[in-house]
Specification:
By secondary structure, the protein is an alpha/beta fold. The chain has 2 domains: about 150 residues, Rossmann fold, CATH 3.40.50; about 140 residues, Rossmann fold (3-Layer(aba) Sandwich). About 45% of the residues lie in helices and about 20% in strands. A 6-stranded parallel beta sheet has the order 2-1-3-4-5-11, with helices on both faces. Strand 3, helix 5 and strand 4 form a beta-alpha-beta unit. The protein is elongated, with a radius of gyration of 20 Å. About 50% of the residues are buried. The structure holds alpha-L-arabinofuranose (AHR). Alpha-L-arabinofuranose (AHR) binds next to helix 3 and strand 9.
């Protein structure tokens, strides 16, 4: 596996005409102080409210500050996202904001930008820390603590079920940092809970309909499941449809916890169909451009700019749904 990853990385970097050693030896590119920048934002996909809210936040902030934003949508393809970054490099952008779809396949894109002298700021998802590092290969990672999100989801489920749950886990995109870390955080929490067990776990690719289909299959194989942990709200909403189609009452027969904080999830909490959702804040615009400005000024940027997240359940969903996306 490690060998495959290395070959993939070496091939990706070689395609860009540079050896891995030469890339890692280079310094992190600097950013000149200017009033207006031409900035790239390489989005991973636009198939859910979270991604749409993130894109809107980035576009609104760029417009407010008068920067030109070169926006691309990889439509769920890591290969296209690499090509999108290469196209931004060819267009001579000053800096690239990248939301890497998966941890490993986007490494060549990060390295290509570095070699071209263009700083990269990772947004919301991270890359493999064995292959690239903040402060050396890219400026920083701005994003939530996904491990903590998984722990908080597990803790909510623990409290609601008195530590008794047969859990179906709907995982996010395979190989993405939120899927890896949300699983890790959740599993770490429940490992000391003898009566909380994951009975089945499969990827629903962070998508509503895929989540529904996977939940349907896993519910057929495990009709005694009492809880669903979805790595995002879209899959949780898909799971609610699957439960209802199977004649089960979401929120009563099966407890659902998830992550994001979308309007549909908050409505499901209000309707009693979902227990809770841990926020993953998608409104990156202000923090992203503020970090870019700090970097241009020559400030030392911390390797991880942590985005703080709230928690939504029946105690606050009604009050906060007005500001949800
Ligand atoms: O990277 C953040 C995750 O990506 C969000 O939880 C999800 O909804 C999105 O697709």
């Amino acid at each position: 596996m490690l060998r495959r990853t290395f070959l993939m990385l070496a091939a990706g970097v070689a395609t860009l005409g540079v050896s891995a050693a030469a890339v890692s030896a280079q310094e992190l590119p600097k950013l000149k102080q200017k009033d207006k920048y031409k900035v790239g934002f390489a989005q991973t996909e636009s198939n859910n409210p979270w991604r749409i809210a993130q894109t809107e936040s980035m576009k609104a902030e760029a417009e407010k500050l008068g920067h030109q934003l070169v926006y691309t949508d990889a439509a769920g393809s890591a290969a296209k996202q690499v090509a999108d970054v290469n196209s931004m490099i060819a267009q001579g952008v000053d800096l690239i904001f990248l939301a890497p779809r998966e941890e490993k396949p986007l490494i060549p894109a990060v390295m290509a930008a570095k070699r071209a002298g263009i700083p990269v700021i990772l947004l919301d998802r991270n890359v493999d820390q064995n292959l690239a590092k903040a402060g050396r290969d890219y400026v920083t990672f701005i994003g939530s603590d996904f491990i903590e999100q998984g722990k908080r989801a597990a803790e909510a489920l623990d409290k609601a079920t008195n530590g008794n749950a047969k859990i179906i886990q709907l995982e996010g995109t395979t190989g993405s940092s939120p899927a890896n870390d949300r699983r890790k955080g959740f599993e770490e929490y429940i490992k000391n809970k003898p009566n909380m067990k994951i009975v089945a776990s499969q990827s629903g690719d962070f998508a509503r309909d895929k989540g529904r289909q996977v939940a349907e299959t896993l519910l057929q194989a495990h009709p005694d499941a009492t809880a669903i942990y979805a790595h995002n709200d879209e899959m949780a909403i898909g799971a609610i449809s699957a439960l209802e189609a199977a004649g089960k009452k979401p929120g009563q027969d099966v407890t659902i916890v998830s992550i994001d904080g979308t309007r549909d999830a908050l409505q499901a909490i209000i309707d009693g169909k979902m227990l809770a959702t841990v926020e993953s804040n998608p409104r990156f615009g202000p923090k992203a451009f503020e970090t870019m400005a700090r970097y241009a000024k020559g400030e030392q940027i911390e390797p991880w700019v942590v985005v703080p997240d709230r928690f939504f359940d029946k105690s606050n969903a009604k009050q906060l749904i007005g500001e949800a996306y």
